[in-house]
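Repro:
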Amino acid sequence: MRKAIAIDFDGCLCDWAWPGIGAPHMNVIQAAIREKQNGTALILWTCRVGERLGEAVKFCSDLGLTFDAVNGNLPERIAAYQNDPRKVEADEYWDDRAVLTPIDPAFKVDGMPLAEIIDSLEDQAQDRDSLTPPDEPDSIFIHDAAALRAAVKLLRRLEETNHD
């Protein structure tokens, strides 16, 4: 079954301007287009109906973003689960009002616990620092180390969510 992403419109794909349509959030739109190009099914999941829904669909289409379903479940998922519930069934939900839920302390990626992942990323950042030639301030290793540290910072924030 294809990966499915349900995407909110107002505040997520564009600035909140109900009943109008705000400026597009091109970073979100481009990310959605990339997902679709990789085979992901996209669902527009919005409170808009009627004419306002049509305007939202056209707005997205004009920017190159099309959907496999609008305010409803994908036919392949309806067939697979033999029902069509009111809540759209998806693997991810992109919404500006989403709340980050805590990570299960037992969370692992490919068998590696989160703390071990963080330690490994920190080690890799230090390795990149040691590879940076002093006379090359724009070395790729500096950028690698910065990206690794940003990932560590993000993962630590996710960890903190568990303790709040």
